[in-house]
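Can you make up a polypeptide sequence alongside its tokenized fold?
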Amino acid sequence: MQTNPPSQRGRSRRGIEIETVLSWLTLVLVPGMAVAAPGRTGGQIYKQQCASCHGAAGEGTDDHYPRALVGERPVAALARLIAKTMPEDAPGECVGEDSDQVAAYIHELFYSKAAQARNKFQAPRIELSRLTVRQYRSAVADLVGSFRGPGNWDNQRGLKGNYSGGGRRRRNSGNAGGA
């Protein structure tokens, strides 16, 4: 007769299998939970490293960066810029996951269309930028043309030309040899 070890006495085979599965799950999930534990958030990093120059609400400061944080960069491009140039006194200090989190935070609060709509400082309107000469002429022609009536078209088409011998005359028109 086979006896069970003391730790397994009084348990069914199914109970032992469940315990084994739970112990394996614990071994697999606990390290994953430790890795997934949140470190610093983008907001915390921004407050520690960025707010002194860019302002608590992204409005800018008079001493370091007077412009508000508004723009059209996507999150990935913003993260690359932050990793490369920020903070100003120690470029390259905010890299990797930190720059990604700060970029997502800045984009959500300042760069996105919804953020620009709710913030008091607006991005410059591109529609009001200067026109090229060609764009200006076209716009003026459209405006002036809208006040003029429709053109009068008659049945005669094409260009009308007058070809006469008048105008400049040759000095020696009839003299081939010229004397």
Observations:
- The chain has a mean pLDDT of 75.
- The two ends are 148 Å apart (CA to CA).
